[in-house]
Amino acid sequence: MSESKTQIADVLIDRIEIKGRDLVSDLIGHYTYTEMIFFLLRNRFPTPAQTRVLDAALVTLMEHGLTPSALIARLAAHSVPADVQVAMSAGLLTVGSVFAGTMEDCAKLLKQGIDSGEDAELYCDRIVLGYRDRKLAVPGFGHPIHKPDDPRTPRLLSIARDCGLAGDYVNLLLVLSRAVDRIYQRHITINATGIIGALLLEIGFEPSIMRGLAVISRAGGLLAHVQEEQQTNSVRTLRQAARKSMPYVSPVDAPSDN
Questions:
Q1: Phi/psi at 104 (nearest 5 deg)?
Q2: Element containing residue 17 per DSSP (H, E)
Q3: For the chain, what are the domain ranges?
Q4: Residue 154, preceding peptide bond in cis (omega within 30° of 0)
Q5: How many C-beta atoms surround the C-beta of residue 108 within 10 A?
Q6: Residue 192, CB half-sphere, CA atoms under 13 Å: how many?
Q7: Which residues of 50-88 are buried (b: 16+ CB within 10 A; e: fewer)?
Q8: Is residue 96 predicted with pLDDT exceeding 80?
Q9: DSSP class of residue 100?
Q10: Which candidate, 100, 123, 94, 128, places its Cα nearest to that of 111?
Q11: What distance in Å separates the CA atoms of residue 19 and residue 24, rounded to the nearest whole number?
């Protein structure tokens, strides 16, 4: 008999147990969705302050307009209209190192800095110089639209401070921000995923699962896009725009590289 086991949940004849709690009598109606996410991942229920911070992070990442994830979900909904989960899954596959899921890379830098015990300014300078020399963006910084500052960042920072959860990781992020501005000789905003990476560390999450929290959040926004696509069939407009902006050029007529 296998010795493998799970401590997440079990389904019995007359009850469902989740991490030692009865779903019907202990959980339904007593805890929110956000609190249950924390409970499943951290094996305890969050404090009110932790709930507020996690909920703010989930709300922040839920929707950001016609991003690649939303466009792909709409295209999939147009192609497979009877299966809403197909469209949502297609969109969620784009949550990664470029869009929505970038908080884990920033969080890794912050965790590494705190765990090292190195002087914060020296550590941040070394990290930023390394990214600059490799011509790479520092994770958690910059935004193609929100300039000079991402408006979500100060709101999330304010919530963390109100909740007493702007600790070592948030402080190191701010030191890192000053190093970025000084070394690049211009202001580069802390983006939403940067501050969220710091906040998720503050409430005890490991960087390795943070992208999963982005997936949970973005799923809600994608469902709204799929519903709107069902109602408007807007992909026809997107396809027309694509044809106009990317006209076909025959390789016979194309200029030679020689």
A1: -65, -35
A2: strand 16-18
A3: 8-45, 47-241
A4: no
A5: 17
A6: 21
A7: bbbbbbbbbebbbebeebebbbbbbbbbbeeeeebebbb
A8: no
A9: B
A10: 123
A11: 13
* Residue 250 pLDDT: 85
Helices assigned H by DSSP within 27-151 = 33-42, 48-62, 68-79, 84-92, 103-116, 120-133
Query: Nearest-CA neighbor of 48 among 57, 35, 36?
Result: 35
Nearest to 56 by CA among 143, 163, 168, 188: 163
Which residue type occupies 175? V
Task: Name the residue with tokens 């002087």.
Answer: 119
Q: List phi, psi (to 5°) of 17.
A: -110, 130
Residue 144 CA, chain-centre distance (Å), reads 16
Q: What is the pLDDT of residue 236?
A: 87
Q: What is the Cα–Cα distance from 132 to 124, expressed in whole angstroms?
A: 12
Q: What is the pLDDT of residues 149-196, one digit of tens each?
A: 999 999 999 999 999 999 999 999 999 999 999 999 999 999 999 999
Question: Which CATH number is associated with domain 47-241?
Answer: 1.10.230.10
pTM of the model: 0.90
- Measure the CA–CA gap between 170 and 195, rounded to whole angstroms: 7
The residues, any chain, with a CB within 8 Å of residue 45's CB and separated by 6 or more, are: 31, 35, 38, 39
Quick count: other Cβ atoms within 10 Å of Cβ 255?
Answer: 6
Cα 172 to Cα 62: distance, rounded to the nearest angstrom:
26
Q: How many CA atoms lie within 13 A of 29 on its CB side?
A: 4
